[in-house]
Amino acid sequence: MTFDPGLDILPKTERLGFEYGPDTFGPEVENRFLKDIRASLKDPRCDGPEVVYSIAMDVGKKKHKELLHKLHLLYGVVTYAAGRLGKEPIRSQGHIHSISPYTNMSTPEVYEIWQGKAIIYMQETAKDNPGRCYAVEAEPGEVVIVPPGWAHATISADPDQPLTFGAWCIREYSFDYDEVREHKGLAWFPVLDEKGNMTWQRNENYEYSDLIEKKPGKYENLGIEKGKSIYQLFEEDSDRFLYVPKPELKKEVWECFVP
């Protein structure tokens, strides 16, 4: 990778997963198979890689393990296969972060791209009216933040290379898929043409809402500093991302949030 995430961890692309350095802890990966995500795809019968992506939830430096538990913070890493899902790019299922038993709220997520090109798609709700819809394109070293309660999915914007990213989330995380699946996906489907260019098609199971395509915000009011990885920022100030398990700390930011 050209980007240094601040952790001794290396994504594997032939057989998806991660290699951890001697000072880094991490679990065996969980694989998401094509059969697991068909219900959220535009064409549920499409062809694609059998293993679409691999997830390692709870990685970090061994010296921080106890502190991360104490702060209710969890760092997860994900790597996607190269290729396509029929005419769609490789992507995750759309979901909303469930109400956390720790904070009694849905919680945000802080993404950081390590390799490849990503689009973090997000919409305010997964109800009939999805509210504002954003497609935020990010490259290695760039950060995208998803606010509490928003439905979202992570999309690989380049079918010719794998996508890898890390993210801060709450330790007591869980996902709610119900409303997204009731609408047969999110409000906009990403579609690739033969040259690999991304276009968007509306999901008619929602009321119409414009799609706003943009680059990531600076997020200075959420502790992000350009040129520093989000793990490095945590090392410098372990309280910096306390708004992830305790989103009420940034209530004023979420009220008028633009990613």
UniProtKB/TrEMBL annotation:
GO terms for molecular function: glucose-6-phosphate isomerase activity. GO terms for biological process: gluconeogenesis; glycolytic process. The keyword Phosphoprotein does not apply. Residues 49-207 form the Glucose-6-phosphate isomerase prokaryote domain. Transmembrane segments: none annotated. It comes from the Bacteria. It is an enzyme of class 5 (isomerase). Keywords: Gluconeogenesis, Glycolysis, Isomerase. InterPro entries: G6P_isomerase_prok, RmlC-like_jellyroll, RmlC_Cupin_sf. Its EC number is 5.3.1.9. GO terms for cellular component: cytoplasm. Gene3D superfamilies: Jelly Rolls. It catalyses: alpha-D-glucose 6-phosphate = beta-D-fructose 6-phosphate. Belongs to the archaeal-type GPI family. This is glucose-6-phosphate isomerase. It comes from Marinilabilia rubra.
